[in-house]
Design brief:
single chain; 4-stranded antiparallel β-sheet; Immunoglobulin-like; 2 helices
Length: 481
């Protein structure tokens, strides 16, 4: 065998030997993978909206850790860094998580000892837009495990709030709470009953913010809201209440649309004392209401910090003085981002559905005053813009040429920020009947005869006379010959 061929063969053998060793080195740091529920169990049935933890066992043997790629359909739920700890609790590095790349990597300290081991925990979720189905899956992990599992529909649970006296642990009635989901929507407004409990069922798994808006009589409202992770059938939160010292009052906030009585849910307000030592945030419920109780007498500043996306957040703040036990009422109005609505009228032919140009439409307000006149364009459309919310009447005041005008008026209700579509039809004017009666007749075996009153009949008659005269002359000439 030629030397170059022997060298090439040897090179291939070396590469073949190195490949498995190289692959093993990439995962040598990570030894085992498992996906756990919040309670730590690894039953292979997961809910679509369930938060989970990817548990990655690791052992340091002198080699730098490789990048750990989380397999689909599990996705890291958030970027961040967590201390990398051994099973004995010693911090030996940092676990860095990249949600965009769906990867994690361990960055080790220089003094880590060979043989150190532990378990890294990575928060993961399912992404609905990435899933192809609800059902059975098989997943291969970088550490060699083959996991078979099932994804079920979204899971639901309940949140229960329990109000207690901080010293006696007596259950307290009359504590009010607002629960907001991750999207900022108020999903429940609760008030503890005689047993000191309040609960809301059928909430999808996820993270919720609970704000206490009112305390039982004689107690102070806790200052900070709470984050609750709903990841099981029932999550219970006990709230300890301290008794108020001195005279206290309350504040009731109502958030509505400016110029209307439409309540704004999910509006957030912050109340501060003049010295800034007391600060409390509350969120309005579905009725646009929020309350704060147990407020010591004094002067406060109220600021709105969040509102619904349809509204403009006010820039001003309000001074609130608590000097009596009767609650102070504070009404706050929010202006709409788009305070006007619009009307689009489309006119078509009743038979052909062709768009009709040139029709005039008039719009009248509730006082029967003319608001505007608009003529349909080439697309048969008449657009009324910048209309205040309210009731209107629409009337076709001039029809296109050759069409009958529709009669009567159409009631239209305009809402702020919305466009109302109205479709209308016109019918063509019937053509005037001819004053000359036309009768079509047809003899058997002959073509179609001229119609009575048809000018072409004289031409046919004249042509016939010429033909007859020509035939007579030919016959006469023949006889003479």
């Amino acid at each position: 065998m030629k030397k170059w061929l022997m060298l090439l063969t040897a090179l291939f053998v070396v590469i073949g030997i190195m490949q498995p060793a190289q692959a093993a080195a990439e995962t040598a740091f990570y030894t085992k993978s498992a996906v756990a529920h919040t309670d730590g169990t690894t039953t292979p049935v997961y809910a679509l909206n369930e938060p989970m933890t990817l548990q990655i066992d690791w052992v340091y043997s002198g080699e730098e850790p490789a990048l750990y790629k989380v397999p689909t359909p599990f996705y890291i739920s958030k970027d961040g860094e967590e201390p990398l700890k051994t099973s004995s609790g010693e911090t030996v590095g940092t676990l860095k998580m990249n949600a965009a790349d769906n990867t994690a990597i361990a960055v080790l300290e220089e003094d880590i000892q060979s043989g150190a081991k532990g378990t890294a925990k990575v928060p993961v979720v399912f992404k609905e837009d990435k899933l192809t189905k609800i059902g059975a899956y098989g997943v291969a992990f970088p550490t060699g495990e083959q996991l078979s599992f099932t994804i079920t529909e979204e899971a639901e649970g309940a949140i229960k709030m329990v109000a207690l006296d901080a010293k006696s642990k007596e259950k307290l009635a009359g504590a009010s709470f607002t629960i907001v989901n991750e999207g900022g929507k108020v999903v429940a407004s609760l008030k503890t009953n005689a047993a000191g409990e309040a609960s809301v069922p059928n909430l999808p798994f996820g993270t919720y913010t609970v704000t206490q808006t009112a305390a039982p009589d004689g107690y102070a409202v806790p200052l900070e809201p709470w984050k609750l992770d709903l990841n099981t059938v029932l999550v219970t939160k006990e709230i300890m209440h301290e008794k108020s010292t001195g005279l206290t009052g309350a504040l009731n906030i109502t958030a509505v649309e400016k110029g209307a009585a439409v309540p704004i849910a999910g509006a957030e307000f912050e109340l501060k004392t003049e010295n800034g030592l007391y600060s409390k945030k509350v969120v309005t419920d579905a009725k646009g209401k929020a309350s704060l109780t147990g407020l010591s007498y004094g002067t406060y500043e109220l600021t709105q910090t969040k509102t619904d996306s349809d509204y403009v957040l006010p820039t001003e703040s309000w001074t609130v003085t608590i000097g009596r036990q009767t609650p102070v009422e504070q009404k706050v109005e929010n202006s709409l981002v788009n305070a006007y609505g619009a009307l689009k009228v489309t006119l078509t032919d009743a038979s052909s559905e062709a768009e009709l140009k040139g029709a005039e439409f008039s719009l009248y307000d509730e006082e029967k005053e003319l608001v505007s006149k608009v003529v349909t364009d080439d697309n048969g459309v008449a657009s009324f813009t910048s209309l205040k919310a309210g009731s209107y009447k629409l009337e076709e005041t001039d029809a296109p040429d050759g069409y009958t005008r529709s009669t009567g008026q159409t009631d239209v209700t305009i809402k702020s920020g919305e466009t109302v579509d109205v479709e209308m039809e016109n019918t063509k004017i019937a053509e005037a009947s001819s004053t000359t009666t036309s009768v079509k007749t047809k003899a058997a075996g002959t073509g179609t005869l001229p119609q009575t009153g048809d000018e072409s009949g004289a031409l046919y008659l004249f042509a016939g006379v010429l033909l007859a005269a020509g035939a007579w002359l030919l016959m006469r000439k023949g006889k003479s010959a």
